[in-house]
Amino acid sequence: MTGLEIVILLVVAVLIAGYLGYGEISHGKTPPVGAQQKQKQGMITNTVVATSNLITDPGGLLGYPAVDGTINGVPVRFKTQNPAMVGAYVLTIQPFMMTTGYIDMGHASVLWVSGTDQETLSLVQTPVLICPNWTITNKANFVPNKGADQDLFLEDTEQFTLLVCPAGHAAPYQQFTMTIAPENGEILPLTRTVPFIITPYAIIG
Q1: What CATH number does the domain located at 55-203 have?
Q2: Where are the alpha helices (H) located in 27-162, listed in sequence order?
Q3: Which of 2, 35, 123, 192 could make an SS bond with 31 (beta carbons 3.0 to 4.6 A apart)?
Q4: Cβ atoms of residues 79 and 165 within 8 Å
Q5: What is the DSSP string of 3-55?
Q6: CA 71 to CA 88: how far, in whole Å?
Q7: Which parts of the chain register pLDDT below 50?
Q8: What pLDDT is stored for residue 95 in this prediction?
Q9: What is the 8-class DSSP label of residue 170?
Q10: Quick check: pTM over 0.85?
């Protein structure tokens, strides 16, 4: 058998193998177990799937004393007031490397944990924020001359500013973890320590 004949036989063998593999998939045969696992790992269990649902906080976290007043344009009312402790937090979030789909912030939760204190906060859209709850105070777009939709879907280049007000307060040097948990995206956990000076607000980082 000549070298040319050997090459022709190899090409024919490759084509037959490819055809058989295509036939198995197109006729509904189950792919290998490893292929199924890899596919499931890349899926998000939601009707709208984003390329990446990871969110980030580009501006950091600000803490405000637990005193009734207006924070970021929204009146806030605390269950108990204490000017020496942080009671409310403001942060801006945006999608990270997201190209399609959205993050559903309308059904998101905010988890606040410090020591044995664990809270799950819900979104409210009222003129006055009654603690413990959280709300969206502003919607913007980091692309110049491009606005944000007025819905609760965080999309593409949009930014939402959140005002979070748990029932528990945090004293100077106290550590806490705040987690932004969308229903259809990856969570954003933020572990911070309250600085010594918290008035009129504290840059927590």
Answers
A1: 2.60.40.380
A2: 33-41
A3: 35
A4: no
A5: HHHHHHHHHHHHHHHHHHHHHHHHTTPPPPHHHHHHHHHT--SSSS--S---E
A6: 8
A7: 3-4, 6-8, 10-52
A8: 85
A9: B
A10: no
Rg (CA), the chain: 25
Backbone angles phi, psi at 19, to 5 degrees: -65, -45
| Separation of alpha carbons 62 and 188, rounded Å | 16
Map out the domains of the chain as residue ranges: 3-41, 55-203
Structure tokens at 177: 């973890």
pLDDT in tens, 54-93: 788 888 899 999 999 999 999 999 999 999 999 999 999 9
Dig out the tokens for 83 from the structure.
């000017």
The Cα-based distances of 5 to 2, 13, 14, 41 in angstroms read 5, 12, 15, 44
Question: How far apart (Å, rounded) are the C-alpha atoms in residues 89 and 66?
Answer: 10
Distance CA 124, CA 77 (A): 13
SS3 category, 105 = helix
